[in-house]
Amino acid sequence: MKIIKQGKHPGEKVYRGTCRTCSTEIEFERHEARYQVDQRDGDFLQIACPTCGEDINVSA
Q1: Are strands 44-48 and 55-59 parallel, antiparallel or unpaired?
Q2: Which of 1, 13, 26, 39 has the most Cβ atoms closer than 10 angstroms to its Cβ?
Q3: CB 58 within 8 A of CB 34
Q4: Which one, of 48, 25, 46, lies nearest residue 36 by Cα?
Q5: Handedness of CA 17, 19, 25, 31 (dihedral sign)
Q6: CB neighbours of 5 closer than 8 A, spacing ≥ 6?
């Protein structure tokens, strides 16, 4: 078998977020972030900003 173009596994969705403190923009996969359950506002992913360390929250 020959792969013409390598795809991504469906579970490897890429998320984007922007830090509210330093405006750093990042892309990350779900396994790199912490999944937070929030019944009121909806579940979200939380990851630390690589520049300043503040939490970046992205809707799951």
Answers
A1: antiparallel
A2: 26
A3: no
A4: 46
A5: negative
A6: none
Q: What is the pTM of this model?
A: 0.77
11-18: which pairs have CB atoms within 8 A and are 24 or more residues apart? 15/45, 15/58, 16/58, 17/47, 17/56, 17/57, 17/58, 18/56
Q: Where are the alpha helices (DSSP H) in 1-60?
A: none
- Burial of residue 48, with CB atoms counted within 10 A of its CB: 0-12 exposed, 13-18 middle, 19 or more buried: middle
What tokens appear for 40 in the block?
């009121």
Cα–Cα distance measured from residue 8 to residue 15, given in angstroms and rounded to the nearest whole number: 14
- Where in the chain are the domains? 14-59
Residue type at 37 in one-letter notation: V
- Structural tokens at position 15: 């998320």
